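ok trying this again, last paste got cut off
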Amino acid sequence: MNKQDFTTSILVAETPEQVFNAVNNVRGWWSENIEGDTDKLNDEFDYHYKDVHRCKMRLIEVIPNEKVVWLVLDNYFSFTEDKTEWKDTKVVFDISKQGDKTQLTFTHAGLIPAYECFDICSDAWGNYIRSSLKNLIETGTGQPNPYIPAQLHGQVE
């Protein structure tokens, strides 16, 4: 992975299995507006947030209690000129034991400072990982984006 790729890590007192299960509970930490399965190899899911962001992900690597990788199949931001941002990038969750703790290293491979969305996206990912996902792992409750019916997104169900 490129040294410029956005990355952040958390260290928790829970097991790699608990971290792995929380990562795959995407509705529990990222957004309740996830459609599709999020935990098995080749699963595909759609994410949307109002009329601001939509993307389609495929799980391309799933190693229980060690690693999860999503490939961004499609992406839309309402606030960028470059409509190709995020497409064909990878979202990587590496899980490893660190003594009696578990480290989760999150990397969005391809999210680099040259991207229009880098500041906004890295701030958002940082919050989702260091706050919402960490809370989900440690307490069982994350802070995902709340469910908003599709018609309020300007989409047709």
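PB: full thing came through this time. The domain at 6-140 is CATH 3.30.530.20 (Alpha-D-Glucose-1,6-Bisphosphate; Chain A, domain 4).
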